[in-house]
Amino acid sequence: MNILKTDLPGVVIIEPTVFGDDRGWFMESWSDARMKAIGLTYNFVQDNHSFSLQKGVLRGIHFQQMPYSQAKLVRVVRGAVLDVAVDLRKGSPTYKKWVGIKLSEENKRQLLIPCGFGHGFLTLTDNVEFLYKTNVPYNTIADRNIRWNDPKIAIEWGIANPILSEKDIVAPLLKESDCNFVWEKV
User: Fold this and answer.
1) CA-CA distance, 26 to 20, in Å (whole number)?
2) Can you list the alpha helix ranges (DSSP code H) found in the chain?
């Protein structure tokens, strides 16, 4: 397993070791012991699986308010996405900065997104299946989102008119949201 840092501290790309032969392949998608050995300690309590029918579906930018903020480990099992994490922690040196990583069934990469970050993805193919683990269960009351095209964040999605849910169409800009993440210097 290979761990790659991104420009956002705490957001890492996990490249699993894939063992293949003429029958197919095998990979370990998460190992608590291996992650703890390199300082990544997460207790995942919920697995989610989404399906997007068409290329151009954009889901996000989503997060849950404190104290229900979620860390996520995300990956694609069919198709491909541009996966994005945004630092929403007020006072952080990387506040409003984002990183976008292509995740696909071919590259088998995963993205680990810590608490305090917003998350979204754009489908790059039809028929995308997306899996993600969370360390805190979904909480309807804490569920929030911000607009996918907030000009103060300026994510380069590469699409002008994505397919959005009603929730994402009416999402507020970050400056209008009640996001309560605050950076704590360690």
Assistant:
1) 6
2) 32-37, 166-169
Q: Of 142, 165, 180, 178, which is closest to residue 59 (Cα–Cα)?
A: 165
Separation between Cα atoms, residue 170 and residue 148, nearest integer Å: 10
Q: Measured in Å, how far apart are the chain's first and last C-alpha atoms?
A: 27
Identify which of 135, 165, 133 has the alpha carbon closest to the alpha carbon of residue 52. 165
Percent of the chain with pLDDT over 90: 85
The answer to whether 11 and 85 are in contact (CB under 8 A) is yes
Which phi-psi region, left, alpha or beta, contains residue 37 (left: φ > 0; alpha: ψ -120 to 50)?
alpha
Q: Which residues pair with 144 in a beta bridge?
A: 63
Pick the residue with more confidence: 39 or 179? Answer: 179
Q: Which of 42, 95, 132, 138 is catalytic?
A: 132
Locate the domains of the chain by residue range: 2-176
Residues pairing with 87 in the sheet = 117
Q: Give the mean model confidence (pLDDT) for residues 93-101.
A: 98
Tell me which of 62, 68, 119, 138 is the catalytic residue: 62
Question: Among this protein's residues, is 95 annotated catalytic?
Answer: no
Q: Give residue for tokens 């984002």.
A: 98
Nearest to 163 by CA among 112, 105, 124, 108: 124
Class of domain 2-176: mainly beta
For residue 132, indicate whether it is catalytic.
Answer: yes
